[in-house]
Design the sequence.
């Protein structure tokens, strides 16, 4: 079973700061997801990665398959970015639709 | 992409009762999933609900406690039966859409807004 570790668990930043959240996993995967969960509980899918780097607006996600590590970066952070960010990995092989989730990183961006 | 709605968004229930959560998707999808998120915990997969077959439950979850229906390609329900305070959680449905081609296949997953259940 894959072990997914996120760091840091909690992160407080000032508006405008550059944010990095890290995710490492223990077993080879078919894809890695970055998700955003707001206080109401709903989850938004930010990225799905299997290699390299993706960018969407102020968000950048990278993955290093050899090192089993991914990072989520937020440039010019804003209070509306405050949320829990969750890393999830999809198994390789026949059950590659199943996700194993990290515990999440609580980001608070102060104005 | 996929837009998912869930009903109810939240509920407070008495122990021993049952609650049925509905999940509606704006497009036809084969794979639907039901997750539970207990307070302060990460998401845990309850079951995979594919249309046309019985739901497949993960270890620790049983059909008698969490019966699932999947009558068509856009709708599913999860029932939390004989509830106890330990069932207080957020319940989320999600759908998987296959991407990739050839040897490399992945599934984009889209999540609903969740149902926040409190059992007293």
Sequence:
């Amino acid at each position: 079973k894959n072990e997914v570790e996120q760091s840091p668990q909690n992160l407080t930043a000032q508006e405008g700061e550059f944010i990095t959240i890290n995710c490492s996993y223990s077993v080879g995967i078919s894809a890695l997801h970055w998700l955003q969960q707001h206080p109401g509980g709903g989850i938004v899918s930010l990225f799905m990665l299997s290699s390299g780097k993706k960018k969407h607006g102020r968000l950048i996600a990278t993955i290093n398959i050899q090192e089993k590590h991914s990072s989520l970066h937020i440039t010019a952070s804003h209070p509306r970015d405050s949320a829990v960010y969750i890393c999830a990995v999809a198994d390789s092989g026949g059950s590659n639709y199943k996700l194993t989730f990290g515990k999440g990183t609580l980001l608070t961006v102060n104005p | 992409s996929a837009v998912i709605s869930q009903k109810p968004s939240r509920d407070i229930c008495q122990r021993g009762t049952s609650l049925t959560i509905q999940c509606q998707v704006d497009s036809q999808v084969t794979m639907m999933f039901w997750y539970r998120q207990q307070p302060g915990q990460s998401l845990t997969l309850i079951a995979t609900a594919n249309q046309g077959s019985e739901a497949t439950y993960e270890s620790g979850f049983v059909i008698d406690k969490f019966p699932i229906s999947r009558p068509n390609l856009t709708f599913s329900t999860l029932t939390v039966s004989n509830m106890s305070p330990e069932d207080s959680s957020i319940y989320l449905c999600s759908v998987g859409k296959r991407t990739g081609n050839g040897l490399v296949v992945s599934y984009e997953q889209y999540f609903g807004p969740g149902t926040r259940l409190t059992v007293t």
About this structure: Chain A has a mean pLDDT of 93. Chain A touches chain B through 23 residues (CB under 8 Å).
